[in-house]
Amino acid sequence: MGNRELITEQEVIKAAVEKFGVKNQVSMAQEECAELIQAISKYLRYGTERSIIEEAIDVEIMLRQLKIMFPSDLWVIIKQEKLRKLRALIEK
Questions:
Q1: Is residue 2 a contact partner of residue 29, using CB atoms and an 8 Å limit?
Q2: What is the pTM of this model?
Q3: CB burial class (10 A; 0-12, 13-18, 19+) of residue 25?
Q4: What percent of the chain has a predicted confidence (pLDDT) above 70?
């Protein structure tokens, strides 16, 4: 990408994977998920939602990187399976 300014979210996400590598970004995804768990725990105790939003966004960004690092049709297939299960729970 050189000196060109990163414009789109997708370009930034791809650049992060390229710069930091798969192993580092998988580790970062793990760390961000742990931080979200901690933010949820604090919310349940103190009712502060901003930290949940911040950490959820970090996890969302890491999930997009995981999809780049591990490309597969399984992302769509498994998501549909999970949504069907959720719908069945809702409809009970």
A1: no
A2: 0.87
A3: buried
A4: 93
